[in-house]
Amino acid sequence: MSDDEKEIRGLIDQWMTSTKAGDLETVLSLMTDDVVFLVPGATPFGKKEFRENSKQHADKSLEFDGTSDVLELTVAGNFAYVINKLTVVTRSPGTDKVEHSGHTLTIFRKQDGKWLLARDANLLTPV
Fold it and tell me: What is the CATH number of the domain that holds 70?
């Protein structure tokens, strides 16, 4: 495994760990300023909207857990893509757990020697 592949896998692990810990600032530091997220039923959104949405969840004490299984990782110069099998379990206080699972296609870009998430197509659906 190349150093680039190790760094990207480390970024994915850090994203999951930071999300579970509610560390929004670290999650935001793992993405480009021009990041674009694609999710079912919503228009594409960027870093500002990601921050606002995450803050709304934090105010509700949303619990998060999840698993990430990298199925394919390809590096081509300063870009890389990952196909990932992702499972996310969330729960607000006083509610049942909600589980979503599916695949993601994520594009990473190397900026100033550091890999960052640049585009993410998230195809998770309720389990």
Answer: 3.10.450.50
